[in-house]
Amino acid sequence: MTDLKLDFISKYRTPFMGLAIFWIFFYHTGIELPVLRELFSLGWIGVDIFFFISGFGLCASLTKDNSVKGFFKRRFKRIIPTWWIVLAVMAIFGFCLELRNFPSSPIDFFYWFTGIGWWTANCNFEWYIPTLLLFYLFSPLLARMSVKSLCVIALVSATVAILLGGGILRLFDHIYMSYSRIPVFISGFAAYKFQRSKTCVSSKLWIPVCFFGLIWFGAGMFVKTYNVTFGLTIARVAIPMFIIPMLALIAIIFSKISFINSLMSFLGLISLEVYLLHINHEFSHSVETMYLSVVDNSLIKLTWFAIVVTTAWMLHNLMQKTSQLFGND
Questions:
Q1: Percentage of the chain exceeding pLDDT 70
Q2: N or C: which end of the chain has fewer CB within 10 A?
Q3: Residue 201 DSSP symbol
Q4: Residue range 49-76: mean pLDDT, rounded
């Protein structure tokens, strides 16, 4: 076993995002095939990869340009226009198809387009973007912290998440998917600082930490069979302990198989759009039901994936051209 250099995270950042969205997509749709069924049942880890890579990328951005105003402007341009376009289209579909959990009043639209609905348990589209936007607010502060401080905060946030996930203050149960991701997001900042300082992660450190993390993760999955919220919270706060070795192994695959690297790089570029276009399960199920009569059931998930990826690519290009039209300053 060797020490870990973290340069591979920057090199394969986009393919990692592509793998994450691929894993997430088929976690949501399901694959009824041996081995693959079990593999994609853990697809929610793809979200943790997203948060880790986001933390890493945000720290890099803020380190290279510490302008807080510029940081928020760049984040706004990348996330909000695409998010609002998808929200608007989905709201129209929801109205036309008379779907239940879609906006039908002015206050619903407020909750819908601001993401506040996630935090208040009112009308909301999804949870990832509202969570990421909240994490953005603290990113300039996190980027200024030392690795030691980041590790302490990650440990404290993991402890608090476990306490909340265990049933203390049940008021926060509905947002457990957000607070259980704080440690992995912060660990992305720490990882970038390690890479920037050219510091290797010693095998004497990462091997026992990874081993303990996997045991902790397994314990969480066991608890999940009795208490979903508590079990998943335990499992998620364990992911920062083994995510870097896990990504290192995946990076080896990317380096050896160019086709997989290229495919995941493509998916990584449109990962935001793919996520938004498929994440509302009520919408996805309604669309799938409409063409189920003309598509063989065994192919419907692959067909839906192809439709979502194609639409995501078109939307991504549209937003790129729109951004160029209005300037990139």
A1: 92
A2: C
A3: B
A4: 93
